[in-house]
Amino acid sequence: MESKTRRKYASMMWECRYRIDALRDFTSGKTHCTYLQTTIESEALQLRKLLELIAYSSLVSYQEAYRSVRSDIAKDWHAARILRKIETINPEFYPVPIKGFSKQGWNKVRGGYLTRKQFERLYDKCGAMVHAQNPFLKGKSSLAFHSSVPEYLGRIEILLSEHVVRLANSDEVIHVVAPMETKAPIQVRHLVRDGNHV
Asked: What is the domain range of residue 37?
């Protein structure tokens, strides 16, 4: 069971990396969708899919909950509601970015990563981008969203490059080293949790 869970989690990290690669191609201008607005919408879709992978990756050890959350995400566009649902299943679902460990424990990253609050705002912004714009409402343009994508991408990379996360329905944690470079290996360690927090 442990190796199966590790493989599932690693598979989700590989998918995250592929979507990050696609987003890098959009932001660098290496690829596009002919028309700028459709490129921006494609960026929003890839970001949203990436956020969904992050949100339910901690449920890989709990098949029933995983299916339930995926079904809810398909029906709901509001990030806070989706995250509250996941939190009822796994209160510590959000990855904790780290840089190795010492005698004191995990060396937690102090800033520069995508926080849970930023996650919620970005998820909702992505939803707004993939729907047709209301011509009667004034708001931030899609160009502003487009220009902020590289910053969001950098924050997500810091969040995922090395992190720990508690698995749902267990006292175990996953320690992940997943450099967001195409050919770098992804390492996933399955650990027994020590104490009350990740």
From this structure: 2-192
